[in-house]
Design goal:
alpha/beta; Rossmann fold; 4 domains; 9% strand
């Protein structure tokens, strides 16, 4: 089967030859762009100036007048504005969770070009719905009506009053927040999407990177994206290609087909790309009881495919991919690959929250929460102390001393360990001390991470250089994260509890990936689900095909109720299901 991206590359080289370098190609993910350039080189068969390649997000950011704002800094900024507008004394600790929801909601509102003033209006009487929302479809009006009928019938209670009070200030907050960001030349992603879409609606010139844009392999489009694509199509400078050859995708009963007909109708292709008759592939379902079992099964399948000649060249296994819906399995899978499979390409990165350093930070927080004073001296809870001493980073430093200390704690059955018993090494003196404020905590964590970096470098053994280099990379990225949070806190006079500080750190770690180095266009491909879009492989191993993992069952946190989201055309869980089904 000829890969979809190969056919696109072939089509454009045939029509443009060397002038293909004057085009810009836009994909749904970066890996698709890499494969496209590889196929274009194969088709050309000679050195060639490659065209510019973007994801659609990167393209819009590149032509915007704004720079992307830091999400943590935005959380502090929106809190300050919320305090001013609501005259509330609500602490940052209580605000932080739903403040993140607001940032996500504002992002959605702009990506779907929703009239924020009308969305965040308070309906006093049902007849207002028909008067205010004449432009909506009957289905959208019905969804909005369902929400407000339910809200009005619920009687008067504190939760309703709180919701109504916050709902009333959301539009002023949304407007003030955007104004503040714009004054600094900053924007969140949705704000950038809206800026470009509104320019497109007004038919203003856009600073496009090439005289012609080719959109390849997109699927679910926000209203802002759709508006921009319609604009460049109307200018006659855009072309569109859809990866809809699979029989599954075109089945109306399959959620993956949700946007197929609409996209093909609105954005047809200029050149015909022949769709091969795709047969349903051979699929084997394997039930396994554990994550370790799944990682071992990857090894067994790859060994079997090498023996059977399915993978004839283990050093060039680029036609085989391992897909990880659950990113926790990345390291177990990497450690389970047959040694013959080399090189391996991992572009998904590894979330910092899944690394051992995140576990260490959690233990440091537990240590601080459980401090007691015994006979006037600080003392730490034995279970947390033992867990810290046994942590893979700490236990590698002064191994004999650490082991003796652990044995002593167990032998004497100590419940709280006095500080004086935990001061035997420089690293222990760094770890076992008391911090009270977030500023002290940030310095504390940075010093612990620096000390561990130095200690790991000293204890590095030749046999474990690779593992140690990973560990030092994790420590470095977490250090940068803590330093960034410390800088943001210094810029905003916002007080918070230690608990909130550590929660913020955890959320920041959930958004940072530690990059892995690999040869992107050679070897076995290891990737996340969304990276597979537009790509074709002869052999696929997809792990964790369990309910709740594929697709993720986690409900999107939103301050905007479901019926209002549906009524105003915002994304809902049906959109997410369609994305993963595709």
């Amino acid at each position: 089967m000829t890969p979809f991206l190969y056919k696109v590359a072939e089509t454009f080289y045939v029509h443009y030859r060397e002038d293909v370098s004057r085009l810009a190609f836009v994909f749904s993910n970066r890996r698709a762009g890499l494969f496209f350039k590889k196929y274009l080189a194969q088709v050309a068969g000679k050195p060639l100036f490659v065209p510019r390649v973007y994801t659609i997000n990167d393209l819009l950011v590149s032509i915007s007048s704004f720079r992307l704002a830091d999400k943590t800094e935005m959380l502090f900024s929106i809190y300050e504005l919320y305090q001013q507008l609501s005259h509330s004394a609500e602490s940052f600790d209580k605000f932080a969770f739903w403040g993140e929801m607001l940032l996500n909601d504002f992002d959605d509102v702009d990506k779907y070009l929703v009239d924020a003033k009308k969305l965040f209006t308070n309906i006093k009487e049902l007849k207002e719905i028909d008067e205010k929302f004449l432009y909506l479809t009957p289905e959208q009006l019905a969804a909005i009506r369902r929400f407000w009928v339910h809200f009005m019938e619920g009687g008067d209670n504190e939760k309703k009053r709180n919701f109504a009070a916050v709902w009333e200030i959301l539009f002023p907050l949304y407007s003030a927040f955007k104004e503040k960001l714009a004054s600094q030349g900053l924007a969140y992603e949705g704000m950038i999407f809206r800026e470009i879409a509104e320019k497109a609606r007004k038919k203003e010139d856009l600073l496009l990177p090439a005289p012609r844009l080719i959109f390849v392999g997109l699927n679910v489009l926000t209203l802002a994206e759709e508006t921009i694509l319609k604009y460049v199509k109307g200018l006659g400078i855009a072309d569109f290609y859809w990866d809809y050859a699979s029989p599954f995708v075109c089945d109306p009963a399959n959620k993956a087909s949700f946007f197929v007909a609409r996209n093909r109708t609105l954005f047809p292709s200029q050149y015909e790309i022949e769709e091969e008759n795709s047969s349903i592939p051979e699929i084997e379902l394997i039930g396994l009881p554990s994550s370790v079992g799944q990682a071992k099964q990857v090894y067994d399948l790859l060994e079997k495919w090498m023996d059977e000649g399915v993978i004839p060249h283990p050093d060039r296994a680029i036609d085989t991919a391992v897909v990880l819906p659950d990113e926790h399995l990345l390291l177990p899978v990497l450690h389970s690959l047959p040694p013959e499979i080399d090189p391996v390409n991992i572009t998904m990165g590894y979330l910092l929250m899944h690394t051992p350093v995140s576990g260490l930070i959690d233990l440091l927080f537990e240590l601080q929460k459980q401090v007691r004073f015994v006979k006037g001296e600080p003392a730490f809870y034995h279970r947390t102390v033992s867990a810290l001493l046994a942590h893979q980073y700490v236990s590698q430093v002064n191994k004999d001393y650490t082991l003796r200390l652990l044995q002593e704690i167990r032998r004497y059955n100590k419940i709280f360990i006095p500080l004086s018993d935990l001061s035997g090494t420089p690293l222990f003196r760094c770890i076992f001390r008391i911090v009270v404020t977030p500023d002290e905590a940030s310095n504390y964590i940075m010093e612990v991470l620096e000390s561990l970096q130095a200690s790991l470098k000293e204890t590095e053994e030749e046999s474990s250089v690779s593992a140690q280099s990973f560990d030092r990379e994790y420590l470095y990225h977490y250090y940068v994260l803590v330093k960034r949070l410390k800088e943001v806190m210094a810029q905003h006079s916002v007080s918070m509890e230690l608990n909130t500080f550590f929660q913020l750190l955890g959320k920041m770690a959930a958004g940072v990936s530690v990059p892995f180095q690999g040869e992107p266009l050679a070897g076995l491909q290891v990737m996340g689900v969304l990276e597979t879009r537009s790509l074709d492989f002869d052999n696929l191993i997809i792990l964790s095909m369990n309910e709740g993992i594929f697709p993720l069952s986690k409900a999107a946190n939103s301050f905007i109720p479901y019926n209002l989201r549906k009524g105003f055309g915002l994304s809902t869980h049906e959109h997410q299901d369609s994305i993963y089904a595709y």
